[in-house]
Amino acid sequence: MSTAREQPIFSTRAHVFQIDPATKRNWIPAGKHALTVSYFYDATRNVYRIISIGGAKAIINSTVTPNMTFTKTSQKFGQWADSRANTVYGLGFASEQHLTQFAEKFQEVKEAARLAREKSQDGGELTSPALGLAAHQVPPSPLVSANGPGDEKLFRSQSADVPGPAERERLKKMLSEGSVGEVQWEAEFFALQDSNNKLAGALREANAAAAQWRQQLEAQRAEAERLRQRVAELEAQAAAEQPSASEKEGSQALEQLEALVQTKDQEIQTLKNQTGGPREAVDATEREETQHKVQDLETRNAELEHQLRATERSLEEARAERERARAEVGRAAQLLDVRLFELSELREGLARLAEGTP
Questions:
Q1: Quick check: 352 pLDDT over 80?
Q2: Which of 82, 136, 165, 204 is the most buried (most CB within 10 A)?
Q3: Of 10, 68, 67, 7, which is closest to residue 42 (Cα–Cα)?
Q4: What is the rounded distance in angstroms from the CA atom of residue 144 to the CA atom of residue 162?
Q5: Which residue numbers delimit the WH1 domain (predicted)?
Q6: pLDDT of residue 126
């Protein structure tokens, strides 16, 4: 191939595949990394070719003919059959936009090849209206980025970065060799590898979340058991105290003390009345004895009043203690209900996780 007669008119980067000639079903990748894939126009022969170089060999050297068809098999993958090379080529692009641009250029080149064939059969001037290129003279068309930075960007023809003579000679040598290496891999290997990594990461996250939920579940179970034991202790304590019987006994003791105090008050009043009236017949000894009795009764009355107040205080304390026990039992029961609800939610979450994990 002469460097003056063949120039690149469009370039992009993609993962290159060829159909397995043995099975005609599996794809064989040309390498682990994306390669440059270019459209070339041979002004001397008036033909268009798709060429991709990998290392020192031409991975793709396909002459575009009017009966070829480029098919999009997915959002980022396309293919075409080359009957002359007796193979099918596949390209995996970095984005749907790159695939669309390559497919559009394929249609343009295909149309230009059809027009060139018709004009060559008619014997007229050979031109390519679809690409605006003369058949016998193609101006220099080096490659310039059209879609920003990165290895996966597309290129279009402009007047900069013209391949030098040494580069064109290298391309010519690689194209002349024309052999393609074969490696047994699947067609969508790289896409499947990426999907597998994502699924593995999601599975690890799900397992970590399940382990954390199991720890929380065990902690909730231990807390619920502790609360059950506490409620049982409080109920046993409340039953042992028997607040109703204690109140009844306290009330009866209080009534008896009050009745005794009233009786003693009446006796004191009677004795006072007896000592306060004229008793000329009672001598001094009887008066002293009566006074001693009055003093004894007053002392006894004071003691009974003190006992009464102590009994009242004990009764109030017993009532307050009972109320506190009831309140504590109520709070413990509420906390137990909350823990049981949280435990139920954790069980449901683990069940959903188990159902969703493959």
A1: yes
A2: 82
A3: 7
A4: 9
A5: 1-113
A6: 43
183 φ, ψ to 5°? -130, 135
The residues that bridge with 79 in the sheet, in sequence order, are 71, 90
Distance of CA 291 to the CA centre of its chain: 95
79, 107, 111 from 69: Cα distances, Å: 8, 8, 11
Strands (E), 83-240: 87-92, 127-128, 133-134, 143-145, 155-157
Who contacts 5 (Cβ-Cβ below 8 Å, separation ≥6)?
Answer: 42, 43, 44, 45, 138
Percent of the chain with pLDDT over 90: 21
Cα 319 → chain centroid = 55
> Are residues 116 and 46 in contact, defined by beta-carbon separation less than 8 angstroms?
yes
3-state helix, strand, coil in the chain (%, to 5): 55, 20, 25
How many CA atoms lie less than 13 Å away from 243 in the CB half-sphere? 16
Per-residue pLDDT at 37 exceeds 80: yes
Residue 127 — very low, low, confident or very high, per pLDDT cuts 50/70/90?
A: very low
Q: Mapping DSSP to helix (H, G, I), strand (E, B) and coil, where does residue 195 land?
A: helix
Q: What angle do CA 14, 16, 20 make, to 5 degrees?
A: 160
Q: Looking at residues 118-142, what average pLDDT do you find?
A: 48
What is the distance between the alpha carbons of residues 266 and 268, in angstroms, rounded to a whole number?
5
Distances (CA, A) of 10 to 39, 95, 145, 162, 282: 5, 17, 10, 13, 148
Check if the beta carbon of residue 144 is closer than 8 Å to that of residue 163: no
Q: Quickly list H helices, 123-188.
A: 165-177
Residues 6 or more apart in contact with residue 104 via CB below 8 angstroms: none
Q: Is 0.85 surpassed by the pTM of this model?
A: no
Closest CA to 328 of 234, 236, 233: 234
Please give the residue that has the higher pLDDT: either 231 or 3: 231
The predicted pLDDT at position 105 comes to 95
**Residue 209 CA from chain centroid, whole number:** 9
